[in-house]
Structures are given as structure tokens and as C-alpha cells.
Amino acid sequence: MIFDAHTHWLPKKIIESAHFFSNIWGDIEKQIEVMDKFKIDKSLLIYPTSDAYKKLGFKEVARVYNNAIAEIINKYPERFIGAAILPIDKKEMIEEFERIKKLGFKAISLATSFDGIYLDDERFYPLYERLEALNMPVFVHPQIINPIGYERIKDPLLTPVIEFVFDTTMCIGKLIVAGIFKKFKDLKFVFAHLGGVMPFIKERFDSIYKMLRKRNIVKDLFAMPSEYLKRIYVDTSGATSHSALMCTIEMVGANHILWGSDYPGNPDISNSIKAIKRLNISEEEKKNILGENIKRLLK
Fold first, then answer.
1. How many CB atoms lie within 10 A of CB 177?
2. In this structure, what DSSP letter does residue 263 have?
3. Full-model pTM
4. Mean pLDDT of the chain
5. Residues 113, 90 contacting (CB under 8 angstroms)
6. From residue 166, how far is each of 18, 25, 211, 228 by CA, in Å?
7. Is there a contact between 190 and 258 (Cβ–Cβ < 8 Å)?
8. Torsion angle of alpha carbons 133, 94, 235, 49, nearest 10°?
9. At what angle do helices 242-252 and 269-277 cross, to 10 degrees?
10. Residue 267 pLDDT > 90, yes or no?
11. Which residue pairs, CB below 8 angstroms and at least 24 apart, start in 180-183?
């Protein structure tokens, strides 16, 4: 079974209210055709983040998106699972969460940050308590509106290539430093794009933390940062690099990696599947990455 952990679909109202997305992002029939072509059995729909909230407001974007996704998963229950989005206002966040629980959602989709507010902010704690109790995972997508570094570098190539993945990296780092993984021991986060550059700076995270702890410059995290990194899940987001994938496996383990295409943003679906099949890991681990891991996560 192949289960795509990272796909996107947007309702027409959000496409028309945002500045980037074309109609292909709202064509569910085309998406099913692509799934059939590459023998993808099921897909998770997550929100790609957009600037539609500037016209509609966070609350309206959440309601429009969640209602539309609920229609998709009810129409195609064997092909799609939906991840709901939430407003960032503390009260509205919980109100919408209670509403979407009745609509068939099995996961939540959050951005790495919201105008500089990361997921370690205490406004998310009541949500995390509810998610932990329900064993409902959080799929975290890079923030594409004002990600980290955007105030200094606004470039149509460098922003998506570098700033998006560094916003993911910073989000993970802030969750570790804030003690979120210690406070919410059973809460499951899934980060897109292999967890940013975290697989490549894992050792530096540990070594710098140890050095600064000896001088009492940083607070006690009660475990090495790399130990907390083993708690997270990541999706591949269309990655094809053998070295990058193996480095990520070293960080989180094969059972915490989910294959994701990043459709329709990434067109190279075939090679991203082949990349998993060519890894120097067991056949069972490959099977887990391609579908079994996310099935267990959403059970």
C-alpha cells in the first residue's frame, strides 16, 4: 500500500483569495487521476498555508477550508483523509477544533509559524492537551507567508528554497527549548520536508547544548536535543536524495518517516517513490515509509 502523507487541495474561495495558487490546486478529479497513475491508494490533504487570511480572516479561512475538505473526505472516504486547520486566536482555535471533531477529521494541519508566533506559544497548550487525549497528530507545513528571514531577504527563489525549510527548523528547535516534547509526551508532530535542515545539524545541536550547559548559559532540557528529535515524525515531501533520506533515518528512525509527494507542488512523484525503494534499509522499513507508518499514526 502507498499512502501519500503530504498532498494539497484548496477550495475555490481560498484560491481566489490567495496570491499564488492556480486552479490545479483545486482539481480533485485530476488528483485522483495522478494517484491512480502512480498506484497511490490514499492521500492525506494538508493545508499549504496561504495569504488568504488577509482577505478573509483566520476564522473564515478555517471554516471555508474545513467544510470543503469534509466534503472531499465524505465523497471519497477510501482515497482521502483530511487534516483540519484552526484559527490562531486561543478561543476561536478551540471552538473550531470542537466543531471539526464532528466532521470526520483525523489530524490537524498547522503552519510552522504565524506572523512570527511559533508552535511553542502557550496559546496552543489547550489544543495540545486535547490532541494528546485523542491521539490526534499534528502535521506541520512550512509557513510561506513571512517565514524566518523574509524581513531581510525577499527573493522568489531563495525564500521557498531556504526560508521555508529554516522556518520548519526553527519551529522544531523552539519546541525542544520550550519543553513541549517533555510537557506533552504523547503528542505527535509530523514535520514536512524531512524536518528542514535538522537532520544535518543534529550533532551541532547536541554539542553546543552541552558546552553552554557547562557554563550555565542555557536551561536544562532534561535530555539531549537529539533525544527529543527521535520523538518527531517527518515526511519526505518528494525528496529523492539517498544521502538526505539516510541522514534523516539516522535522526528519527525509519518508523518515523512518512512518504509524501507534496502534490501538486512537486511533479516528480515517480522518482520520489523509487528513492524509497532504493534505500539501504529492510523491505519492511520501506513498506512502513511508503504507507504503514502513517496508517499507524492515524489509527
1. 15
2. B
3. 0.96
4. 97
5. no
6. 23, 24, 23, 18
7. yes
8. 180
9. 60
10. no
11. 180/119, 180/120, 180/128, 181/228, 181/231, 181/232, 182/221, 182/222, 182/223, 182/228, 183/125, 183/128
